[in-house]
Design goal:
Blueprint (H helix, E strand, L loop, with lengths): L7 H15 L8 H15 L4 H10 L1 H12 L9 H11 L9 E5 L6 H13 L5 E7 L2 H9 L1 E3 L8 H7 E3 L7 E4 L1 H4 L2 E5 L12 E5 L9 H12 L2 E8 L13 E3 L6 E4 L1
Parallel strand pairs: 1-2, 1-7, 2-6, 7-8
Antiparallel strand pairs: 3-5, 4-5, 8-10, 9-10
Length: 268
């Protein structure tokens, strides 16, 4: 078990399976990443090779989800790429001012920090609670963390003081050393499992969609298809926000860049 290796043939089989199920493109240079993400799973199951693990995945349907969860686990934190939340704050006093029924979708929310960050900004800028946030991810494990809304206390370093005081609680007893999202936020935030590589369920239309650090995992064709699915849920004159590291060039979308170097687009 200490000499596990991932052959080119085994990696190719895994990458093909992940692409078919999740649309995630894993080029050869991701072989080491895949090995590191899965090797402890093989050891836990006492499976002697990645070839045998593929047989196990084929025989046990739930394991495919586990495998994808392990491969797609991403780093996230509160107020990541702050310029996007500064823009959202500006919207609460312009486009969104006085509106009700405002809906924002965090389309790859991971463990929920992005969704709760959006909620903090909306709660601070929109009186009356006429808004809601939907967080979604393909990874069921991270969604459970998101639903709990409890995070290591180290995460509070990323949260501005005024939001920390207004919307975060200090963990007690078994949650000592952690912070918890206040009920004021949680009642407006819901989480769903959604695979962007498949038909999106009937989740309605949104004023703003955050699709950050997702498109980097797709090849050109898949990126265009995912964008088309997501944009079908963005209202006219609504906004799509992607990461600064991502490009929409060549995707055929009818979007207008709001600010140079902002990665914020408007559906026109």
């Amino acid at each position: 078990m200490n000499n596990l290796s991932l052959t080119g043939e085994e990696f190719s089989a895994i990458s093909s399976l992940v692409y078919r199920k999740a649309g995630i493109y894993l080029p050869e240079n991701k072989r080491y990443l895949v090995y590191n993400r899965l090797v402890n799973r093989l050891r836990k199951l006492e499976i002697p090779s990645f070839g045998k693990y593929l047989e196990y995945v084929a025989s046990k349907n739930s394991e495919l989800g586990v495998m994808i969860n392990l491969i797609t686990t991403n780093e996230t934190f509160f107020f990541r790429e702050p310029v996007h939340f500064e823009f959202l704050k500006e919207l609460t006093s312009s486009d969104l001012a006085g509106k009700t029924g405002i809906r924002v979708w965090s389309a790859a929310c991971s463990t929920g920090e992005e969704a709760y960050t959006i909620a903090m900004v909306l709660a601070d800028g929109i009186a009356g609670g006429g808004w809601e946030v939907t967080g979604s991810d393909i990874n069921e494990t991270v969604l459970e963390t998101a639903k709990r809304g409890i995070y290591p206390v180290s995460q509070k370093m990323k949260i501005p003081e005024q939001y920390l005081k207004s919307f975060c609680l200090k963990g007690v007893r078994s949650n000592s050393g952690k912070i918890a999202m206040a009920d004021e936020l949680r009642r407006h935030v819901s989480f769903l499992k959604i695979n962007l590589n498949e038909e999106i369920p009937k989740i309605g239309m949104f004023d703003i969609v955050f699709l950050r650090n997702v498109l980097i995992y797709f090849d050109g064709d898949m990126k265009s298809r995912v964008l088309a699915r997501v944009l079908s849920h963005v209202k006219r004159n609504g906004y799509l926000i992607v990461s600064h590291t991502e490009s929409l060039i060549g995707t055929g979308t009818n979007l207008e860049l709001v600010k140079k170097k902002s990665s914020i687009y408007k559906k026109v």
